[in-house]
Amino acid sequence: MESSHRNLTQQVVHELGRKIMQGSYKVGDSLPSEADLCTQFDISRTATREAVKMLTAKGLISSRPRQGIKVVDSKHWNLFDVDVLNWILLGKPDLYLLRHFLQLRLGIEPEAAYLAAQYAQEDELAAIENALARMKDATNGQDDTHEADIEFHQSVLSASNNPFFIQLKNFITTALKVNIRFTNRMIPVTVAEYQAHVDIFELIKNKKPQAAFDAAMITQRATLAIVNEQISVLENKAL
């Protein structure tokens, strides 16, 4: 019974979280009351209250007496929460959100490469090299372009040996997937892209922290520049 109760609660949390990210409930909108949610999802009041508490803990809603349940401003959302990141992918991420992702990646991935050049162990270097092998195969269409790229960036985070950076794997993965959505990329990894990743790996392997940092920063800034250009085009069209 307890397991069933928890599953029902999680279903409500997932459904409401997804609707918020998809814009069915916008910032400032009121959600149905707890009583209405009980009826809508055919669950107990206890399960409903637990779902509301979970969404409140994730920063998506507020629930107050006489004010009801409301979607709060996105600046309060826990954007590092695994569920929230998954709902972002199910929702309608835009170029501005992608830019926010990339801006934060600028502060994460170059430093992760710097730390990896200092602290990476042999097995961690092997993991990065394995990801590179997959990227090489992807240049010929023999592996999944997206998964190979994601594996590379995750491996560098792990090689940093910084537990906080390692915890950001889900964030980086979501950022990469949002980027993929906008590029709508089905082509293989280009030789130039593969070589840029090889260069970062070689600098990490040869324990050159600053050079690894600089190389990673160049690739991140190049991606951000492309997105900024796309946003400028959209804004100019809107004028």
Give me a quick take on this structure.
The chain is mainly alpha-helical. 72% of the residues lie in helices and 3% in strands. It contains eleven helices and two strands, in the order αααββαααααααα.
Mean pLDDT metric = 91
CATH architecture of the largest domain: Up-down Bundle
Q: What is the structural class?
A: mainly alpha
- Outline the biggest β-sheet: 2 strands, antiparallel
The H-and-E topology, N to C, reads as HHHEEHHHHHHHH
**How many domains, as an integer?**
2
Silhouette: elongated
Strand order of the largest sheet: 1-2
CATH topology of the largest domain: Four Helix Bundle (Hemerythrin (Met), subunit A)
Distance between the termini: 58 Å
| Poorly predicted spans | 1-5
Count, helices: 11
Number of strands: 2
Descriptive overview:
By secondary structure, this protein is mainly α. It folds into two domains: about 1-75, Winged helix-like DNA-binding domain superfamily/Winged helix DNA-binding domain (Arc Repressor Mutant, subunit A, Orthogonal Bundle), CATH 1.10.10.10; about 95-239, Four Helix Bundle (Hemerythrin (Met), subunit A) (Up-down Bundle), CATH 1.20.120. The protein is about 70% helix and about 5% strand. It contains eleven helices and two strands. The protein has helices at about 1-20, 35-40, 45-55, 80-90, 95-120, 120-140, 145-160, 165, 170-185, 190-205, 210-239, and strands at about 60-65, 70. The protein has a two-stranded antiparallel ribbon with strand order 1-2. Mean pLDDT is about 90; it is low at about 1-5.
